[in-house]
Design goal:
By secondary structure, the chain is of the alpha/beta class. It has a single domain, classed as Roll (Chitinase A, domain 3). The chain is about 20% helix and about 25% strand. The strands form two sheets. Strands 5-4-3-7-6 form a five-stranded mixed sheet. A hairpin with a 5-residue loop joins strand 3 and strand 4. The longest helix has 11 residues. This is Regulator of nucleoside diphosphate kinase. It holds the Pfam family Rnk_N. Keywords: Kinase, Transferase. InterPro entries: GreA/GreB_C_sf, Rnk_N, Tscrpt_elong_fac_GreA/B_C, Tscrpt_elong_fac_GreA/B_fam.
Length: about 140
C-alpha cells in the first residue's frame, strides 16, 4: 500500500544504495517474498530515488535512523528507530521496516507527512519532526 502525502500524492522517497540493496535482498528471500508487507515495501523501493550513501541528506529517514514524529490529528508524539525485521523490539521502540509505519517512514524527509491506518483502523497523519542518524 503506497502511503499518501497530505496533498494526496505519495511523498518523494530517497534511499541510500546500501539500504536499497540490503532491503531488496531481504525481500527476495523465500521467507518474505509473498508476504503482503514485503510486497508493499517493494512497491516503495521501486519508486525510490537511490543515491550513494554519502549523498543522502541527513534530513532523510534511513535504516537505523531514530525518527520523532507527531500525529497532526491528535498531537501525539512517537519516537522510533527504523530497523531490519530481526532487530525489531517494540518495547525498545525498534520498529521493523516491514511494519506498516516502518515502510511508510523509510526515505521520507524532515517535515514530510504521511497518512496511514494503524492496526485497529485508527487513522494517523504523521509528520517527521526529527531524524537522528546512527554514528
Amino acid at each position: 500500500m503506497t502511503q499518501q502525502h497530505a496533498s494526496g500524492l505519495p511523498p518523494s522517497l530517497i534511499l541510500s544504495s546500501v539500504d536499497f540493496n540490503r532491503l531488496e535482498a531481504l525481500l527476495d528471500s523465500p521467507a518474505q517474498r509473498h508476504q503482503p508487507a514485503a510486497q508493499a515495501l517493494m512497491e516503495e523501493l521501486n519508486r525510490a530515488e537511490v543515491l550513494p550513501p554519502e549523498q543522502v541528506p541527513d534530513s532523510v529517514v534511513t535504516m537505523h535512523s531514530f525518527v520523532d514524529c507527531v500525529d497532526e490529528l491528535t498531537g501525539e508524539r512517537h519516537g522510533l528507530t527504523l530497523v531490519y525485521p530481526h532487530e525489531s523490539d517494540v518495547d525498545q521502540g525498534r520498529v521493523s521496516v516491514l511494519a506498516p509505519v516502518g515502510s511508510a517512514l523509510l526515505g521520507l524527509s524532515l517535515g514530510q507527512t504521511i497518512d496511514w491506518n494503524a492496526p485497529g483502523g485508527r487513522h494517523l497523519r504523521l509528520r517527521v519532526t526529527e531524524i537522528r542518524r546512527p554514528d
